[in-house]
Amino acid sequence: MSLVNPNVEKMAGYIPGEQPESLDVIKLNTNENPYPPSPKVREAIAKITDEQLRRYPSPDARVFRAMAGSVHSVDPEFIITTNGGDELLSIVFRACLLPGDRVAMLDPSYSLYPVLAAAIGATPVMLPYRINGLQWHLPEEIFHLDARLLLIVNPNAPSGTMIDPHTLERIAHSFSGVVLIDEAYADFAPQTALSLVHKCPNVILLRSMSKGYGLAGIRFGYGIGRPELLAQLYKVRDSYPCDAVAIAAATAAIEDQPYARGTWMDVIEQRRWLQKTLMDMDFMGPESFSNFILATVPRGRSAADIYAKLKAGGILVRYFNLPGLQDKLRITVGKPADNQALIKALRRIVAGRSISLQETA
Ligand SMILES: Cc1ncc(COP(=O)(O)O)c(C=O)c1O
Known about the structure:
Helices cover 38% and strands 16% of the residues.
């Protein structure tokens, strides 16, 4: 007899993006903010007392929820905090799905979703999201779904493209289950689906502090949805999912909106430069509204080969050996010097010349 749930035994686990020990690498592979968090975060962490470390933290991160509520103009009761956005996903899967239930997601989108479905024994319904020229197209079936849970990353990962709030509203109205709109990258986008949480009782948004606020290292995320829906999620959540240090850091980060917005503006400006420069080199892709670019490599080139050569030269980007993505690279927008080093390295690779870490620096 298996020691674990048979669903777990037969599934493949999620493989996170590479996190090298060495800092001597240009890291454009896991979509972190290239800028550090607000200096107020360090101040907040420095103020943590022994007493705060001795006691359990606030179970519902009340200070953070009050601050996030004022930033998003929603009642704090509409906010649930989690140990990273990933934990919100686990909770929603646990709360909504029984073995055999159908869970719909765009394909491609976040590769953690099918893994969470497999652990429960739920059936993933993959909705083909396909590129034609520079346009990605939603399948018509998204408006006529038979499933209990629907996941939409917006802006999408890995494409970087956006579905407008009006279309999302139509989808939410046509769907009888819970719609999780994963806005992990919304800070870099021109629109959010925030207004839908008031209009559609079945919508929950996922937000992450890892990308927009430069806090991937502390693990903090949150959901925004109707309190009646959140009340169900609280039942299957850890008792103290966010520690005292993380709550203090995340609260300071979200409070310092001018700082965070400054980093988003810089990333957006760099994204435009990088995208235009890549297009000029025949690395094509639709306009990204995120902090990464999905670029199809020039005809006759191998994305796997370019990925490997960049890695050998000390530059990490993401390559997905998956249908529809094998000719593409997902490149996180970095600081200007990192983006320039990437372009320099790509020019050398395309010209058949070797690159080394010293040359890219
Ligand atoms: C689409 C998407 N959703 C959610 C997450 C989870 O983010 P975190 O757990 O770091 O808050 C990620 C992280 O890469 C992501 O890409």
